[in-house]
């Protein structure tokens, strides 16, 4: 059932929704590029993994979701958070380790979550998310909410036993679960062409009796369409789908990575297939949105990110009295 | 009304009552029903030792068999718990924790803290522990110290059928992740158990025997060993206060310390391997908090630092028994009653 | 690359080798049927899982192996042990928990091993063996011994992450490893038709870039041929293969299992496709071996099993001084 | 000849020398070389923090990158060890043990016993532990108590570059499975380290400072915290005996007990969470074996019973520091020097 979908027309999305999609992608990009700068300045503690370049995946998938739906993310989770509606200022404050952060500063970049939005958390464990999503999908099924669960994971994570088990479990249980393999070419410094012993991650779907689909991850519309089909099938009781999204990671594995293991694949991607550029030219070319409108979104987004950074830097830090709270509901 | 039922039946009854009470309670595990896809009976097993037998037909769609994929289905239980279900998942033997530990200790246990207090993950992981059935090195371990170490988990070890029902009911209603450790050699033991639902709170040790000369702290199956020893000690005029911890996390510091404050002597009986276990944990607590009451060294009776041997000639030597507890007590009594 | 092989002729095996094959299969069957009786008498401690009905798999594979080759087994390991040359009397003594046992009585049925024979142990953990076999195969490769590693595992184990990861690792590393999925229809009381969310376990091979083969597990020659090809390829540097062997478990999951989850599939299999019967009629039909010769093997085997049981029952048990030995080489 | 090199370099040097000495020594792990399949440099990383950098080119075919499949490749290291190799496998962060623990504790650790003494499994699992880099709840844990609990494993925690080289050399030559825990905040610390190969035996604690009033037992990075505290205490006239455990399994009971026999007071400093950890283990040992020498309660300085917080405002409060050790010592000194 592995198949490459043709690039679709922006069918089904009106101007309003297209603006939303653009705003989401732009917000992710601006968030990440700003973090890239801020990290270099030394103010941000811990590890930071940027999602820049991969915006079409989180956005194309999450456009189909609402609060009854859950997603699980990865160490590279900012994009998924933003696309699922987590508050950008709360995210920024979290990354700065502030008490106003999405997790009161206790989680950090790798653990941003907002359960009220169905965002089950970035995850520091490669392959940590897919089992959890089997559970949220099961809950949706048993509660008859029509909700789905979406597990985002990387090419590296596609070799983790937890991920592979989850494909089987979701299939056996007939769960409304979508597995989005974000193949950005690398797991740390290791190429997916080497670590994934198959031509495509999507080829693994057949071994678990589910459809496997490959999409161009630079093309928002391709992702949107493939995800839409899979999610519709899942909502209708048709079970899980594995979607492989292929693209390139724009920055290093984490901030600070020198990336001597790859040559300048990124430069070319940024120039030729960048998801934001492609989106813009598609929607303006067809006359659906105009440049001015998009630029005003850009302006709003940049202002939001500026404000988020400024507020995060000013925000209070957690204190000793926060250290031992919230380990248990009761103890 | 109380009747005599088994530990197995007590757990089954607690699950039945909780499933009746609350439709979000669900059960899952390998062959927790049994017979999926086969040509014969569905609910053929009710779990490998029959603990969940009957639930499948009573609660359609709420008892799920699983493939042998502990990470996936334990993780699924955890994920479902974040979205309003109250799953009770079975890790068939505690020995299998190694294939799914990440979901338990890095996911379930940490959500609430990592997410700034915003997550609630009411999952119960039932698991079978302990030696005594010649099930050998990979099916006989007492690995609860590993779970006890982890912040964010609660760890429960019922010592008899009465305890099992009340503690399981509490576990299902509890809003934190609970590791519920059932001793495989206790399933057929019986006790008076009320038919009506009841809970036993976590973190409250049970004083199963009052005494004055020595405190014996025990847990799980070792409570019986401690009681047997106490009975024997009584015949030599030594009176032991025997505590059943019930839960190792939370730990009832207070009851332990009060008892030692009055007896001045402590023996801890723990079926697990001796390093970094519950026996060391309780000993250390007392050595710090009740030092001034202590009149003798603290003794620990545990398994040796070895895997569990298979042979029926060795396993009984591996498991702490009443004689070793008696000896330990006599040691802390300074040999005067030895 | 999933493919069903045609039933081969007994090519390549002379009368001597055929007798060996028969003796191995008969020994396994007799060992297991005797244990079935002895277990009922209550003398045998612990859990016992019988391999009866599956003899053609262990035998057909292990006929290709020698001491430089390793195998990893499962909880249902007696057949693999016997086929890999572990001493039958030492096995029986082990199952009785005696000091003369293969593991001095410390291991029991689920942990019989003989590393000198390349038998890495029965294994109480479902999916425990495949990673280990990646390692023995790696050692063979690095040491240039031409050796291979074979992981036997069940249909249930084919859903365990450790198994799936190992398929990928072996493929990525190009290891001389063979993965033999013994699909006996059930994992405990759960049918593989339900738990394996694909038509065949062998269908999973493609997702890891390796050949997947299905064989009739009642047919010794089919197993022997498929294993021969895979092992030859592996020895030649051609990498791993996944072989799915399909058959039926003759007894319950473990001794004591009432098996209410299945009807009388077994009776039919025993009568129509039993591997020993099929082997006999094949080799006598072609005149390669005669009935009398086979019966004299039977006699020798039964005598061996009788002696093994009698000796095991008489053998000394380990004692207190054995309890704490052999945890470490030094400590 | 000794020079000053870093902890990172010391481990690298031990590996290099052992790989030169013995062709069966191999190295594997995620990006232990780095760059596999990429368009640029091979050996691009040498491990996520550069510990194995350079080995890939020096020892062709003996440094293996792996997919992110810890069960498979840690298991592979174990399997290879049973067939004559001496693998050093990297579990990048100790926090990831949950996805591969089975291979470690049910396989490697138990082979020898389960197989009646016939297996030898010389595998080293290198892993990075500890807080201090704001790596948050899933990348900062000190989970060595879990490994220490398991019979059949040896657990090593080098506290500085000198220790790291000698202990790693021993680990590679050792015939038992070794969990080698490297503190991530120590990699850049330096010490005088001989160029020639040397081993430090397991189970021999190092007395890093002699003193008379109190014994401070520490391990890994906490040795530095203990030393700092001892320095400060000296200025208030309290002289502390500071022990670096070096290995928690085997544990050097003797040196601990001797020290407490002479000081009569014990403080244990352990970066891990407080329940069933090394601090309780050492406390319990002393409360049993050296009770009569004890003149004060045993204090433990550990992390709290919480996951590791991310914020740079919280993490320093989480990690035991010298001030807390000083306070604990003053407590056991009966406040007379407080
Ligand atoms: C179980 C586990 N193993 C290893 C790691 C270390 N690690 C973090 S991210 C990463 C690479 C992940 O690659 P991929 O899944 O492709 O995601 P990407 O970073 O490309 O988004 C690794 C190895 C981890 N966090 N968890
Ligand atoms: C990790 C783990 N999970 C569960 C079990 C319990 N268990 C033992 S055998 C078995 C069924 C195995 O089925 P399969 O792999 O098909 O092998 P078979 O018994 O049919 O030979 C199960 C669930 C186990 N031993 N280890
Ligand atoms: Mg990637
Ligand atoms: Mg099976």
UniProtKB/TrEMBL annotation, chains A, C:
<dbReference type="GO" id="GO:0000287">
    <property type="term" value="F:magnesium ion binding"/>
</dbReference>
<dbReference type="InterPro" id="IPR001017">
    <property type="entry name" value="DH_E1"/>
</dbReference>
<dbReference type="Pfam" id="PF00676">
    <property type="entry name" value="E1_dh"/>
</dbReference>
<feature type="domain" description="Dehydrogenase E1 component">
    <location>
        <begin position="24"/>
        <end position="319"/>
    </location>
</feature>
<keyword id="KW-0560">Oxidoreductase</keyword>
<protein>
    <submittedName>
        <fullName>Pyruvate dehydrogenase E1 component alpha subunit</fullName>
    </submittedName>
</protein>
<keyword id="KW-0786">Thiamine pyrophosphate</keyword>
<dbReference type="InterPro" id="IPR029061">
    <property type="entry name" value="THDP-binding"/>
</dbReference>
<dbReference type="GO" id="GO:0006086">
    <property type="term" value="P:pyruvate decarboxylation to acetyl-CoA"/>
</dbReference>
<dbReference type="InterPro" id="IPR050642">
    <property type="entry name" value="PDH_E1_Alpha_Subunit"/>
</dbReference>
<keyword id="KW-0670">Pyruvate</keyword>
<dbReference type="GO" id="GO:0004739">
    <property type="term" value="F:pyruvate dehydrogenase (acetyl-transferring) activity"/>
</dbReference>
From TrEMBL, chains B, D:
<dbReference type="InterPro" id="IPR033248">
    <property type="entry name" value="Transketolase_C"/>
</dbReference>
<feature type="domain" description="Transketolase-like pyrimidine-binding">
    <location>
        <begin position="5"/>
        <end position="189"/>
    </location>
</feature>
<dbReference type="GO" id="GO:0016491">
    <property type="term" value="F:oxidoreductase activity"/>
</dbReference>
<dbReference type="InterPro" id="IPR005475">
    <property type="entry name" value="Transketolase-like_Pyr-bd"/>
</dbReference>
<dbReference type="InterPro" id="IPR009014">
    <property type="entry name" value="Transketo_C/PFOR_II"/>
</dbReference>
<dbReference type="Pfam" id="PF02780">
    <property type="entry name" value="Transketolase_C"/>
</dbReference>
<protein>
    <submittedName>
        <fullName>Pyruvate dehydrogenase E1 component beta subunit</fullName>
    </submittedName>
</protein>
<dbReference type="InterPro" id="IPR029061">
    <property type="entry name" value="THDP-binding"/>
</dbReference>
<dbReference type="Pfam" id="PF02779">
    <property type="entry name" value="Transket_pyr"/>
</dbReference>
<dbReference type="GO" id="GO:0000287">
    <property type="term" value="F:magnesium ion binding"/>
</dbReference>
<keyword id="KW-0670">Pyruvate</keyword>
<keyword id="KW-0560">Oxidoreductase</keyword>
């Amino acid at each position: 059932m592995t198949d490459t979908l043709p690039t679709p027309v922006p069918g089904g999305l009106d101007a309003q929704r297209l603006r939303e999609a653009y705003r989401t992608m732009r917000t992710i990009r601006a968030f990440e590029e700003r973090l890239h700068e801020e990290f270099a300045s030394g103010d941000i503690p811990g590890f930071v993994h940027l999602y820049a370049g991969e915006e079409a995946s989180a956005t194309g998938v999450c456009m189909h979701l609402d609060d009854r739906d859950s997603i699980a993310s990865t160490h590279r989770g900012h994009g998924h958070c933003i696309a699922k509606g987590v508050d950008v200022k709360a995210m920024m404050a979290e990354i700065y380790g502030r008490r106003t952060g999405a997790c009161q500063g206790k989680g950090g970049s790798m653990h941003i979550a907002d359960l009220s939005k169905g965002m089950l958390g970035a995850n520091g464990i490669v392959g940590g998310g897919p089992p959890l999503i089997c559970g949220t999908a099961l809950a949706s099924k048993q509660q008859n909410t029509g909700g789905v669960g979406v597990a985002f994971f990387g090419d590296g994570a596609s070799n983790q036993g937890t991920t592979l088990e989850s494909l089987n479990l979701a299939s056996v249980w007939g769960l409304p679960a979508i597995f989005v393999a974000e193949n950005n070419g690398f797991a740390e410094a290791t190429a997916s062409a080497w670590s994934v012993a198959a031509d495509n991650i999507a080829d693994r779907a057949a071994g678990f009796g589910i459809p496997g689909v490959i999409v161009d991850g630079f093309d928002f519309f391709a992702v949107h369409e493939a995800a839409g089909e899979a999610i519709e099938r899942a909502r209708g009781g048709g079970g899980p789908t594995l979607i492989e999204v292929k693209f390139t990671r724009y920055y290093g594995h984490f901030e600070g990575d020198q990336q001597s293991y790859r040559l300048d694949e990124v430069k070319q991607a940024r120039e030729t297939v960048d998801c934001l550029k492609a989106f813009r030219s598609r929607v303006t070319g067809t006359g659906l949105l105009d440049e001015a409108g998009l630029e005003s979104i850009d302006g709003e987004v940049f202002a939001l990110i500026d404000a988020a950074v400024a507020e995060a830097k000013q925000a209070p830090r957690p204190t000793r009295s926060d250290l031992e709270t919230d380990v248990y509901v009761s103890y | 009304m109380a009747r005599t039922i088994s530990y197995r039946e007590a757990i089954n009854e607690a699950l039945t009552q909780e499933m009746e009470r609350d439709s979000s309670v669900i059960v899952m595990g390998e062959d927790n029903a049994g017979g999926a896809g086969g040509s014969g009976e569905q609910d053929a097993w009710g779990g490998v030792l029959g603990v969940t037998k009957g639930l499948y037909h009573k609660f359609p769609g709420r008892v799920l068999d699983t493939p042998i994929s502990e990470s996936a289905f334990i993780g699924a239980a955890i994920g479902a718990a974040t979205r309003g279900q109250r799953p009770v998942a079975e890790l068939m033997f505690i020995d299998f924790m190694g294939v799914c530990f990440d979901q338990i200790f890095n996911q379930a246990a940490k959500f609430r803290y990592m997410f700034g207090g915003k997550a609630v993950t009411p999952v119960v992981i039932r698991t079978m522990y302990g030696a005594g059935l010649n099930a050998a090195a990979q099916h006989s371990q007492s690995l609860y110290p590993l779970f006890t170490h982890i912040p964010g988990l609660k760890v429960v070890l019922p010592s008899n059928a009465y305890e099992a029902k009340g503690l399981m009911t509490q576990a299902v209603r509890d809003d934190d992740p609970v590791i519920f450790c059932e001793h495989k050699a206790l399933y057929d033991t019986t006790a008076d158990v009320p038919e009506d639902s009841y809970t036993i709170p976590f973190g409250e040790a049970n004083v199963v025997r009052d005494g004055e000369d020595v405190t014996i702290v025990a847990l799980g199956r070792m409570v019986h060993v401690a009681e047997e020893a106490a009975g024997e000690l009584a015949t030599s005029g030594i009176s032991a206060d025997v505590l059943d911890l019930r839960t190792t996390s939370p730990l009832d510091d207070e009851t332990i310390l009060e008892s030692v404050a009055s007896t001045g002597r402590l023996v801890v009986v723990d079926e697990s391997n001796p390093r970094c276990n519950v026996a060391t944990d309780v000993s250390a607590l007392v050595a710090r908090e009740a030092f001034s009451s202590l009149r003798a060294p603290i003794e620990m009776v545990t398994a040796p630092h070895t895997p569990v041997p298979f042979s029926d000639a060795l396993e009984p030597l591996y498991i702490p028994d009443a004689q070793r507890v008696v000896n330990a007590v006599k040691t802390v009594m300074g040999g005067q009653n030895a």
